[in-house]
Amino acid sequence: MAALSSDLAPRANELCLEVPRNGIPHIAYVVPRPGDRDAHGNLWGRMERVPGGRVLFGEMDPERQRECMEGLLCQICGQPAEREGGTLFFEWQRPGAPPLRLDRIKTDMPPLCPPCVPLSLGHCPFLRRGESAVLLRVRKSILCGVGGTVYQARADLGNWLPAASNVYSSYSRPRQPGMLAARMYRKLRGTATVDPSELVGAP
Length: 203
Ligand SMILES: [Zn+2]
Prior knowledge:
Radius of gyration: 18 Å
Number of strands: 10
Order of helices and strands: EEEEEHEEHHEEE
Bound molecules: zinc ion
Number of domains: 1
Distance between the termini: 21 Å
Strand content: 35-45%
Largest sheet: 6 strands, mixed
Shape: elongated
Helix content: 10-25%
């Protein structure tokens, strides 16, 4: 799940400007590949893997993050994480932040299957700090938007330059033509907190 420090952002010459059917020019790859765009038409970043990169905990590989979010797959083992009684997600309770509003959570952290929860608690340094991670059982989650870098076309329209990073773009709003997505979000509904110790032996 964690990304490698050797993951690279796209080179400017891989990107071009395309005019789709709606007539609004948007960012595109010079050489398109299947799966470049999600169901809402957002273009996704491609990560080149350089062997030997250092693992960056807390960073996510966009391709895997998207697969896990779209398919509700476990962020650790990649197996289906959805369960009849509710799907497990983590959310952060940041120090000094107001308590989590369980009916308001929107997350880019993919779910977990029950057997992977102890593994995750034991291995990720962020989670080992314990107090900041809250385990949630979620009845329903809905794909709601993407996050990423918004590029702007230069005046000669020959080049895209990054203009804003960590931008959220909701699926309920018009697409950002310059968005290069790196994370997919779900909003969580019917959410309750769970004590991780209750999960021992869960399937
Ligand atoms: Zn798992």
